[in-house]
Amino acid sequence: MANSKLIYLDNNATTKVDEKVVEAMLPYFSQNYGNPSSMYELGGHNAKAIEEARETIRDFFGAKNTREIIFTASGSESANMAIRGILSADHSKNHLITTKVEHPCVLNLHKQLEKEGYNITYIGVNSIGEINEEELYEAVNEKTALVSCMYANNETGTIFPVEKIAQKVKSINKNTKVFVDAVQAAGKIKLDVQNTEIDFMGISGHKFHAPKGIGALYIKSPNLITPLVIGGHQENGKRAGTENVPYIVGMAKAAQMAQDSLEYENTTVKRLRDKLETGILSRIYNARLNSSSQNRVPNTTNIGFEYVEGELILLSMNDYGICASSGSACTSGSLDPSHVLKAMGIPFTALHGSIRFSLSRYTTEDEIDFTIAKMPEIMDKLTKISPFQKELAELKQRKGIN
Amino acid sequence: MWNYSDKVIDHYKNPRNVGSIEDADAIGEAGSLSCGDMLKLYLKVNKDGIITDAKFQTFGCGSAVASSSILTEMVIGKHIDEAKKITNKQIVDALGGLPPEKMHCSVMGHEALEAAIANYYNEEITVNPDEELICNCFDISKSFLVNEIKNNNLKTIEDVINYTKAGGACGRCHGKIKAVLEEVNASKEKEEPKLTKTQMIIKINNIIEKYISPELRKDGGDIELIDVEDNQIKVKLSGRCQSCNRSKLTLTHFVEATLKEHINDKIEIIQV
What's the pLDDT at A3? Predict the structure, then answer.
């Protein structure tokens, strides 16, 4: 890396693996390498390590029983396993409901299912990213097999009332299943799945300081799914393949540390996020808050910079070692800007210049102060390049910020 | 992160000629805010038709700013009719290349330049209101698409997306784009003049020298062109290739494939 100083504000993309997590994993590579299914101590020890990890993850979800926890390789796999698994276990219904702002692992899967013949209802959000609950309840009918709704949105951090949604959906059709993608909620807010009517919930380790390539799916008993991967008897017959012991152990360690830090997340991290947000909004006249929802995970803010393009902002931030991400088309590989911000109806003036800042418990006050100090400098340089000088001047006058 | 050349990085970090010209003799615009990139180009032209100053304002990503910035450097000092000959490919080359997905940034630069020159000559760029719109997301007409396909030798839908953005959002127009591609490329095949035998030999030798020999030489071998009859190309392997038991594979998988890519699909290699 060119920058000796790195300010990592992209924790909704991925997080650094905590050193204690690495430490916990290391013995499971070259020392305790046994296959958990083997009939000798080297394997048996690892089977025990997995069951201990499963107990930690059960507690992390707030689930009742360890049998309800399946280890997967990612949040995407968890979502696919749940959604495909439910549909192939019960062919009697052909209607699915999801939201327009889901992660691609849920949204694109629904688009695929649409091609396969399912009817899908996509529920919208309001201008600050909150789900149109009534629209969702009205869509539930006797043919509805599944409602998939994320716990917290990755781009805006907005929290959806999934517990209430599950309860209401079940009151309309008790046979409709509910899947919750909790990838962005895990480690930021407390999960308590057993006291809800949610049937399935997915998480991903690398969003809470475990490595990439490990996730988990909660399946409320007595729900049944048809496995995606057929083979051996691992994971209670629901996911074949020799268990990824070091990563399972690592994710459990990370989950336990995240659980212990929830208080810190919701006090210190939240305070720093709010400081960054108000710092930017009060100093930069072309900044607008994309989601002002009170119900947000404590680490995320999404700010649109009007008349400036997002990739250019990120490249300029990179010069100062500040890492964040953008909903701009140019950064996405596709030429379409963020489907989340579009669903919210964010105006074109800010859509392409939207930046998501996502903090973690490792973010320091100094880093936030540095970012607040540098962003106006960056924006000052970039607005000068914009062809919308007249519009910018009007905005400046209206906001009264210099 | 994009793999930008040093030149691109230098130009977006330190863009040259940013701003507007109050009494510009020509102004050209391309793109729009809603499409995610836009460029405004200002030219100052003296009485002899020489561009004495150029400035730009761009809403867009790093490569859009870099394309605009280098374009201003390219046109300053040129006669307006010389500037007219600048292609988007020249913008890309001057930048030391652009990632494939970013080619449309150079096309936008070229479009703005065309618009500015038309403005200088008080020409209206006429848009036929009845003309078929191919891509509704990015407002892209058939004639624009046909031009870019021809100028940049575009072959696939992916190429079209990278160069023009058409088809890059909702994807509903992919069928239409495919039809235009087929139409343009079919007519181009007809247009392409048949090479004489000597021209063909020169062309093949150039390809061998540039793409094939250097690879074979790495393994201590080489290749020589013996004769050409229509699509049959007779070659002789030399050095270590001669005795190599995989030489047949080399001929079909590498030599023939490379020549097919650069000449046509009907090429056949014969070892003599």
Answer: 47
Q: What is the 3-state secondary structure (H, E, C) of chain A?
A: CCCCCCEECECCCCCCCCHHHHHHHCHHHHCCCCCCCCCCHHHHHHHHHHHHHHHHHHHHHCCCCHHHEEEECCHHHHHHHHHHHHHHHCCCCCEEEEECCCCHHHHHHHHHHHHCCCEEEEECECCCCCECHHHHHHHCCCCEEEEECCCECCCCCEECCHHHHHHHHHHHCCCCEEEEECCCCECCECCCHHHCCCCEEEEEHHHCCCCCCCEEEEECCCCCCCCCCCCCCCHHHCCCCCCCHHHHHHHHHHHHHHHHHHHHHHHHHHHHHHHHHHHHHHHCCCEEECCCCCCECCCEEEEEECCCCHHHHHHHHHHCCEECEECCHHHHCCCCCCHHHHHHCCCHHHHCCEEEEECCCCCCHHHHHHHHHHHHHHHHHHHHHCCCHHHHHHHHHHHCCC
* Contact residues on chain A for B29, CB-CB shorter than 8 A: 387
Average pLDDT, whole number, for chain B? 88
Please, what are the domains in chain A? Answer: 7-14+262-399 (3.90.1150.10), 19-258 (3.40.640.10)
> Total domain count for chain B?
3
Do B28 and B112 share a structural domain?
Answer: yes
Domain span at residue B92 reads 6-120
Average pLDDT in the A53-64 region? 98
pLDDT tens digits along B198-213? 888 888 888 888 888 8
Compute chain A's Rg from CA coordinates. 22
pTM: 0.83
Q: Which pLDDT does position A4 carry in this prediction? A: 64
Residue where a domain stops, chosen among B191, B206, B225: B191
Whether residue B184 lies within 8 A of chain A, CB to CB, comes out as: no
Residue B263 lies in a domain: yes
For A310, which residue in chain B has the nearest alpha carbon? B61
Of A253-257, A277-281, B124-128, the poorest mean pLDDT is in B124-128
CA distance A150 to A127: 17
* Domain shared by B69 and B164, yes or no: no
Contacts of A202 (CB under 8 A, 6+ apart): A72, A75, A78, A79, A82, A179, A180, A181, A182, A183, A215, A216, A217, A218
| Out of A309, A335, A348, closest to residue B165 by CB | A335
Q: A387, B39: Cβ pair inside 8 Å?
A: yes
C-alpha B72/C-alpha A145 separation (Å) is: 59
Select the residue of A309, A328, A348 nearest B34 (Cβ to Cβ).
A348
Q: Would residue B241 show up in a list of annotated catalytic residues for this protein? A: no
pLDDT at A398: 92
Instruction: Look up the ipTM and state it.
Output: 0.88
